[in-house]
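Appendix B, example 12.
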Amino acid sequence: MSTEVPRPGPAGLAAGALLLCRAEPESVAPAAHLLRERLLLTGAGEDWSVLVPEGTPWLHGDEPVDRVLTGWATALAVGAPWPVLALWWDADRAGYTLASGFRRPVGYVWLANGTPAGEDEAMRTFAARLGLDPVLDMQSLEELTKPDFGSDARARLCSLLAVLTRAGVSLPTGLAPGETADRLREIARGRPDAHQIEWSGWREAVRAELDAVDSSRLGPWMPWSGTPRARALSLAQAAAGLPLTAWGVRRRSGGWIVAGALLLVHGALGLAYDLARPRD
């Protein structure tokens, strides 16, 4: 355990967040609609996209930004074949959460002054799930778990993003950790490829999702494919959604409630479609 005395962090750092998805924007948009949140979507490098929240529920409710973003990232990842990386920060801390499929999310936290407050194993899991270089990239990530008087929490997240550039991440100029929510929205809106995600009802959201996956590699997993994989996925989603929703209700966590509800809806719709589909 380090004996170094924590130093004061940057005062008044406004809370903010970004959601990085390892997929092209056209693949991310349908899943993002189901979050039922106002978001701005734009490209973030080769095979990466970024979602910028237009709302800031962590500023108006009882949930901190990290809990809200963990719920959103989990909800996005459980219904998609690509991982979701949530970056978040507030006046006291900053960190990330990586969600991938049905696996338990993994994350790391730094205090505002840059003091590491996470477990080293989380970094190793993070690198493995993103397929990062186990030697070069892992060395850089391990440096982020050691005390450094020259790096505050914002610098730690920027260093993390620097490692991810080797995996194709390239955030648009201005979309950076530590910026205010207003500034992030302003930068995202100014992008020529920006797309606004806004809840327009279940019918339109499902229709958008169907259109997006018809020509994608997700076809065999979709309910209308009639494959064993599609039925297994629907069952798994319904089975996981109920306890996750109940857990979110007990914890009064809106993010986890959304994740559980999304699983339940996906699973129930898939099973209903499979039962109603005419058999050959």
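The beta strands are 16-21, 39-43, 49-53, 84-89, 93-99, 106-111, 195-197. The chain has two domains: 16-195, 217-276.
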